[in-house]
Amino acid sequence: MTLDMLHFTPWTALAGGVLIGAAAVWLMLATGRIAGISGIVGGLLGPRGGDVGWRIAFIAGLMLAPWAYRAVAVVPEAQIDAGTAMLIAAGLLVGFGTRLGSGCTSGHGVCGLSRLSWRSLVATLCFMATGFLTVFVVRHVLNVGGAA
Amino acid sequence: MKKLVFAFIGGLVFGLGLILAGMANPAKVLGFLDLAGKWDPSLAFVMGGAIAVGLIGFRLAHSRALAWTGEPRVWPALRGLDKRLVLGALLFGVGWGIAGICPGPALVLLGAGSGKGLLFVVAMIAGMALHVLFARTNSKESGRQQRQ
User: Fold this and answer.
1) DSSP annotation of B74
2) Do A61 and B14 form a contact (C-beta atoms < 8 A)?
3) Do A2 and B109 lie within an 8 Å CB cutoff?
4) What is the rounded distance in angstroms from the CA atom of residue B81 to the CA atom of residue A120?
5) I need a surface site. Which of A25, B24, B44, B45 has the fewest CB within 10 A?
6) Where are the domains of chain B?
7) Distance separating the N- and C-terminal Cα atoms of chain A
8) DSSP 3-state assignment of B39?
9) Over the range B103-117, which residues count as b (16 or more CB within 10 Å of their CB) and which as e?
């Protein structure tokens, strides 16, 4: 392993993390709901239709964030290397997996770990493990995109 | 109405945090997940910052039964570890590793007008819908087994 010092951004990462944590705490204090993005989106598809408004409002806030950011600073470039087939496969797995496992990086990784939940610790270790493993296989075994 | 404003602000700040942190750039996320290449440890700082705030904030929230809207808080009801949690998290990690996108950043990318972001979100929602079908079939199966 070598460190990528060129792209390492500890201060903006930390500050961004603090904002993410603050937003999650805000949502819980203000509305009493967990800021788990997969749960907020998935709840719109569930059998019980109610409880829709705040979900839409939260998603609207997320989607407008790049525009608000642009008003005060330059939005860092987002680079998506995955092609069509990979994006479809990734999206299906992320959608199905987060609903089966009751959470994603925000619900388990941020809110759950902050609440010292065992379930969330196990889930986070699981998705981190297959995340690392998948990138290893894609980049260093199959040699698809971005291999150093 | 108040609840919608609270949720909107929560989503907006969450999204600003994702952008500032670099989480809304899939290439940076993959740089973190690529342990065998040039490793960018930034995302560990994102988690650290978010959880540091979350630990304090969620403790505060746990000590107060009602949200600012006057409603009781909705805490995750599931307890204990099960196969669904582990399998779901493992599948989610594979999808995350393929494209470097998890649900929050996916919505930020969609909001920014990214075509690839749109494709990912459509696939993600399809994956969530598949889970609704899967869960429905599964509960029918188990209902049948219980009656027998």
Assistant:
1) -
2) yes
3) no
4) 9
5) B44
6) 2-147
7) 11
8) strand
9) bbbbbbbbbbebebb
pLDDT, one tens digit per residue, over B7-63 is 999 999 999 999 999 999 999 999 999 999 899 999 999 999 999 999 999 999 999
CB contact under 8 A, A78 and B109: yes
Could you tell me how many residues make up chain A? Answer: 148
* Closest of A74, A43, A76 to residue A57, by C-alpha: A43
A74 contacts on B by Cβ (under 8 Å): none
The one-letter amino acid code at A54 reads W
Rounded Cα distance, B3 and A54, in Å:
6
Beta-bridged to residue A3, according to DSSP, are B39
Cβ atoms of residues A128 and B96 within 8 Å: no
Token representation of residue B88:
């779901």
Question: Is the pLDDT confidence value at A147 over 90?
Answer: no
Are the Cβ atoms of B112 and A66 closer than 8 angstroms?
Answer: yes
- DSSP bridge pairs for B39: A3
Strand segments (E) across chain A = 2-3
Q: Which of B128, B130, B131, B136 to mutate to test the interface with A (most CBs of A within 10 A)?
A: B128
User: Shortest CA distance to B98 belongs to which of A84, A125, A110?
Assistant: A84
**pLDDT value of position A145:** 65
